[in-house]
């Protein structure tokens, strides 16, 4: 009788252990610090969050903190061109890529005429609608996606990323967003796009099919380089500013800003087209334009300029604008 | 108790303990790297640090490194309007928010260019705050604040507030005291200012939009604002006190001045357009250089005595291009050269 009692107790205990294990396995996988893990295995299994179906895309519909614990790849899927890796439909999602990569099936031939195949709707990390706010993505690489590497809505922070060889733009974010320390190369459209205001600092954009860096109304670019892109090196909307940046060998001009902007402390060399193009009532000061195929500085009537250097530009030094001080034109002092 | 019942009880106890560990209901107090964990469960249980009572606020009474391991929410707590999520009472505390959010019960009406968001309910309950301005060396980074009745994050002196999103809080989005650094902040639709420095320091790479008061505000002297944008805020876009500087920034469509500066300030390389007041306003002995002021509601530049200006652009401002000040070099006024 004693032995049967002990066996019964053991069976009861084992039943509870198995139940607890089954319950635990049904929960989202959490790293030791509470952050929800995403990896290739979990993506294919589904259930990263409740409502996430098996396979790609991983659907994030809950705000919180997420971390990659492996590379993700959509290359081997049935329809890889149309499939995104991660789609975010909740506000306030932070995704630490943890040094890992998201990759897809697309291959881009990399030059000022970059072309990518296949292209499609499949992006790396994207929001389900452009109203999704507060996405944060950092610390990883996204390449070979048929669409954008990253597409975020407003109030986003995108930093410490490499986005290369994607079929559309490398990284795009909505109004009031921050880009910081991003490398965008060889993408099938723009390198980095800030569709509204915000800041872009320490961006490297190279060999993208269209503009290297594109910013919207009231945005600021600082300390960035943009080389060998199929469009302009840096383009900006009305009231935008570009500072302490370099543009070289771009096919659509060096720096092209909408009305009423400012360009200070920049260089534009070897671009096809003007080194600097500014419209409206803009300010151009302390910049250097050399060996561009257009004019060094193409300015509208209401713009002011001073302290610039224009050397060896095929179509002239400085056209338009109002001289506010001394400049240097082909080695000679000028308005 | 019979032997059978005793065995069952022991088994149940053992299995419950195992289940609790597996389910993370009794997460270790310290993360793998030794930082002290803060999460919703531990906040409600208390004991995050010695003297931390159950419930909010989590009271940090020991210097060191802390990490969030879940979102925190004060919504649903008793007195949620006056309850802060984390209060820091000692110096030298670092809080890695680990990508998580601190949330509250407040909702702010944030539409596109909604420069006067209405937030309700509002109160004194914030996200992370110091118990007094003298608490120094708080570092907070890598997280989000939303829906707090009060301020999102408030540091004391020598704070580092970075890599944060603070949206839709009833008070200021982020603030810090003297000799602090605030950088890489997205601050939108808060019921106070977007970002505030109450002492000296640096504000860099801030995007402040649609806050009810100013986008970026320096309340005392010796503040640097660098590479930031302020759009659609209910007062000034960027507001400085004296002995401060603004460089490489933009202020668009704010309801008062684009950039306002106290005495002895330097404003350089910035754009102010479409604001309700002056594009740039400055009190005495300020230097305005290489700025653009277009289509503002009143003056392009409204300058106090002893203020010098050079290389500025003013266009389409109905109350005048440049009022006051002393031209140091040429400028452009409505597309023509001017003093």
Description:
The complex is a heterodimer of chains A (335) and B (339). Chain A has helices spanning 2-25, 40-45, and strands spanning 36-38, 58-60, 64-68, 72-73, 86-88, 93-96, 101-103, 107-109, 115-117, 125-127, 136-143, 150-151, 157-164, 171-173, 177-185, 192-194, 198-206, 213-215, 219-222, 225-227, 234-236, 241-243, 246-248, 255-257, 262-264, 267-269, 276-278, 283-285, 288-290, 297-299, 304-306, 309-311, 318-319, 322-323, 327-329, 332-334. Chain A has a domain at 1-28. In chain A, a hairpin with a 2-residue loop joins strand 35 and strand 36. Chain A is mainly beta. The radius of gyration of chain A is 25 Å and the shape is elongated. Chain B is mostly beta strands and 339 residues long. Chain B has a domain at 1-27. Chain B is 8% helix and 38% strand. Chain B contains two helices and 36 strands. Chain B has helices spanning 3-22, 40-45; strands at residues 36-38, 58-60, 64-68, 72-73, 86-88, 93-96, 101-103, 107-108, 119-120, 128-130, 138-146, 153-154, 160-167, 174-176, 180-188, 195-197, 201-209, 216-218, 223-226, 229-231, 238-239, 245-247, 250-252, 259-261, 266-268, 271-273, 280-282, 287-289, 292-294, 301-303, 308-310, 313-315, 322-323, 326-327, 331-333, 336-338. Classes of the chains: A mainly beta (335), B mainly beta (339). At the A-B interface, helix 1, strand 3, strand 6, strand 15 and strand 17 of A face helix 1, strand 11, strand 13, strand 15 and strand 17 of B.
């Amino acid at each position: 009788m004693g032995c049967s009692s002990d066996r019964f107790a053991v069976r009861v205990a084992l039943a509870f252990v198995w139940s607890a294990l089954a319950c635990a396995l049904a929960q989202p996988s959490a790293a030791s610090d509470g952050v929800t893990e995403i990896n290739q295995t979990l993506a294919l299994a589904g259930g990263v969050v409740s409502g996430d179906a098996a396979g790609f895309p991983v659907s994030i519909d809950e705000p919180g903190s997420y971390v990659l614990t492996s590379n993700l790849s959509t290359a081997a899927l049935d329809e890889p061109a149309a499939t995104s890796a991660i789609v975010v439909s909740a506000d306030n999602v932070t995704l630490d890529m943890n040094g890992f990569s998201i990759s897809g099936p697309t291959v881009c031939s990399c030059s000022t005429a970059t072309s990518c195949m296949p292209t499609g709707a499949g992006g790396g990390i994207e929001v389900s609608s452009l109203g999704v706010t507060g996405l944060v993505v950092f610390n990883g690489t996204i390449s070979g996606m048929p669409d954008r590497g990253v597409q975020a809505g407003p109030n986003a922070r995108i930093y410490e990323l490499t986005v290369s060889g994607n079929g559309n733009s490398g990284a795009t974010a909505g109004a009031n967003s921050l880009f910081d320390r991003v490398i965008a190369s060889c993408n099938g459209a723009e390198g980095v796009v800030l569709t509204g205001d915000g800041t872009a600092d320490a961006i490297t954009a190279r060999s993208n099919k269209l503009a290297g860096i594109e910013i919207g109304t009231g945005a600021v670019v600082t300390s960035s380089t943009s080389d060998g892109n199929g469009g302009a090196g840096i383009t900006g909307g009305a009231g935008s500013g570009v500072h302490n940046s370099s543009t070289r060998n771009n096919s659509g001009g060096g720096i092209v800003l909408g009305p009423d902007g400012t360009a200070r402390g920049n260089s534009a060399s070897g671009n096809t087209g003007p080194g600097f193009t500014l419209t409206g009532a803009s300010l151009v000061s302390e910049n250097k334009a050399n060996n561009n195929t257009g004019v060094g500085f193409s300015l509208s009537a209401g713009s002011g300029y001073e302290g610039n250097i224009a050397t060896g530009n095929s179509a002239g030094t400085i056209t338009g604008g109002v001289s506010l001080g001394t400049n240097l034109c082909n080695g000679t002092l000028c308005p | 108790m019979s032997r059978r019942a005793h065995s069952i009880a022991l088994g149940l106890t053992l299995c419950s303990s195992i289940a609790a560990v597996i389910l993370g209901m009794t997460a270790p107090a310290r993360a793998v790297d030794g930082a002290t964990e803060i999460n919703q469960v531990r906040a409600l249980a208390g004991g995050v640090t010695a003297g931390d009572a159950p419930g909010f606020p989590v009271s940090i009474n020991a210097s060191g490194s802390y990490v969030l391991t879940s979102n925190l929410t004060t919504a649903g707590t008793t007195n949620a309007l006056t309850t802060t999520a984390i209060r820091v009472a000692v110096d030298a505390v670092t809080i890695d928010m680990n990508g998580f959010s601190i949330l509250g019960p407040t909702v702010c009406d944030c539409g596109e260019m909604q420069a006067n968001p209405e937030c309700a309910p509002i109160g004194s309950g914030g996200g992370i705050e110091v118990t007094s301005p003298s608490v120094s060396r708080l570092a907070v980074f890598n997280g989000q604040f939303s829906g707090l009745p009060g301020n999102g994050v408030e540091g004391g002196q020598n704070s580092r507030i970075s890599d944060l999103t603070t949206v839709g809080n009833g008070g200021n989005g982020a603030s810090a005291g003297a000799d602090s650094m605030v950088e890489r902040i997205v601050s939108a639709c808060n019921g106070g200012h977007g970002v505030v420095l109450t002492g000296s320091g640096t504000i860099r790479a801030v995007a402040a939009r649609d806050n009810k008061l100013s986008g970026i505000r320096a309340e005392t002297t010796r503040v640097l604002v660098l590479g930031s944008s302020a759009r659609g805020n209910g007062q000034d876009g960027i507001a400085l006190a004296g002995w401060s500087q603004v460089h490489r920034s933009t202020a668009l469509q704010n309801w008062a001045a684009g950039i306002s500066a106290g005495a002895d300030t330097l404003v350089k390389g910035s754009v102010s357009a479409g604001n309700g007041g002056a594009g740039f306003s400055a009190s005495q002995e300020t230097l305005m250089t290489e700025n653009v002021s277009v289509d503002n509601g009143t003056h392009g530049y409204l300058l106090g005595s002893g203020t010098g200006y050079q290389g500025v652009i003013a266009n389409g401002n109905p109350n005048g291009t440049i009022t006051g000040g002393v031209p140091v070099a040429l400028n452009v006024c409505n597309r023509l050269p001017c003093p």
